[in-house]
Write a structure and sequence with these properties.
This protein is an alpha/beta fold. It has one domain. 46% of the residues lie in helices and 16% in strands.
Length: 128
């Protein structure tokens, strides 16, 4: 039975090889187990791309969970992150994530998988 579980995990890992993904969670895990993923598009609540990049550096890749990846990639860690992570300045609370039509069209051509783990922090929202 354990062998089947391992095969399932291996097939999932392999599925990510060469894919571009719009993702809101699991960044470190995917980069660690499948470094051949093409791109991870991260929707970051920010007014512009520069602010989104700074938030990724300070709140995502700068967090302790990335220590193993930093150790694996050494001095090439920042290059690896820049190659793999593509920030999108937007917000899940806005229509079309707050992205313009041209950006949405470009994304639709580049993204193979969407993993949505986003949620609102507005506790007055209705549960539907």
């Amino acid at each position: 039975m354990a062998m089947i579980g391992e095969m399932d995990a291996d097939s999932v890992v392999e599925y990510f090889r060469g894919k571009s993904i719009l993702i809101t969670v699991l960044v470190e895990k995917i980069l660690r187990v499948q470094p051949d993923v093409k791109k991870l598009f991260l929707l970051i609540r920010a007014p512009n791309i520069e602010s989104a990049k700074l938030r990724i550096q300070s709140e995502v890749t700068g967090s302790g969970i990335f220590q193993l990846l930093k150790k694996q990639h050494g001095v090439w860690f920042n290059n690896f992150i820049e190659e793999k992570i593509c920030p999108l300045a937007g917000d899940i609370m806005h229509k079309d994530f707050g992205l313009d039509i041209a950006s949405l069209i470009d994304l639709s051509k580049d993204i193979d998988i969407i993993v949505n783990g986003a949620a609102t922090t507005n506790f007055s929202e209705r549960f539907i």
